[in-house]
Specification:
The chain is an alpha+beta fold. It has one domain: Glutaredoxin (3-Layer(aba) Sandwich), CATH 3.40.30.10. It has helices at about 5-15, 30-40, 90-105, 125-135, 145-155, 200-215, and strands at about 60, 65-70, 80-85, 110-115, 140-145, 160-165, 175-180, 180-185, 190-195. The strands form two sheets. A seven-stranded mixed sheet has the order 2-1-5-4-3-8-9, sandwiched between helices. A hairpin with a 5-residue loop joins β8 (about 180-185) and β9. The longest helix is centred in the middle third of the chain and has 15 residues, at about 90-105. It is globular, with a radius of gyration of 16 Å.
Length: about 220
């Protein structure tokens, strides 16, 4: 059985508030079962973050126009987030922090995936310009596709909120609500942790966890 991380580190790593709030609410019993299984180190080596959920298969479109699939990410850990390019609030900061994390992990076999929650606007061409401004390379995907599929990836696959605001109910972020969490996924497609993108301590934990998984 793998050791359970200290409470403070566990809260930075594994506490996704959007799982229990918003359009993707998951029954508390299901969440408790998943966390309990993970805490027991189901398939996790000592010192690694626990396995929580498995990301379902997906087939979407990367900014390059090439297919973006879970199968193509197999073999290396990856960090995911959900953004949209016309977001005026959290997204620019999330992308900047993802870029900084990528820079710190340079030379480590970790990939990055930013899913758009606004695919009607975020075409591959729009995402390509956004990615270029962020300094992204081929190891950092920017993904679009049908809105239903993308929102399902967030709410059903990653257990994170994603929804379009009602007309006239836009927030400072714009027309969509989405989580500001970063999600660490291992090379087999298992979610290993949720990390607050606004919390520097959580981001340091994410970096350390990603290095552990990459060294397997």
């Amino acid at each position: 059985m793998a050791p359970v991380p200290a409470a403070a580190d566990r809260s930075r790593r594994r506490s996704p508030p959007a799982i229990l709030n918003g359009p993707s609410a998951v029954p508390a019993a299901l969440l408790l079962a998943a966390l309990t299984a993970g805490a027991c180190g189901r398939g996790a080596a000592p010192g690694e973050p626990p396995r929580l959920f498995t990301v379902p298969d997906f087939t979407l479109v990367e900014r390059s126009g090439r297919p973006a699939t879970r199968a193509a990410l197999r073999g290396q850990p990856w960090v995911a987030d959900f953004i949209f390019t016309r977001c005026a609030g959290a997204c620019p900061a999330m992308t900047a922090r993802m870029a900084a994390l990528r820079a710190r992990l340079a030379g480590t076999p970790v990939r990055f995936v930013s899913f758009s929650v606004d695919p009607g606007h975020d075409t591959p061409e729009v995402l390509a310009r956004y990615a270029a401004a962020a300094g992204a390379g081929t190891d950092w995907w920017f993904v679009t596709g049908p809105m239903r599929d993308l929102h399902a990836r967030s709410t059903e696959g990653f257990k994170l909120a994603a929804m379009e605001n009602a007309p006239g109910a836009e927030t400072a972020d714009g027309p969509f609500l989405h989580s500001a969490k970063f999600v660490l996924v291992d090379g087999e497609g298992a979610i290993r942790g949720y990390y607050d993108s606004e919390d520097e301590a959580a981001l340091r934990t994410l970096e350390a966890d990603a290095r552990r998984l990459a060294a397997r």
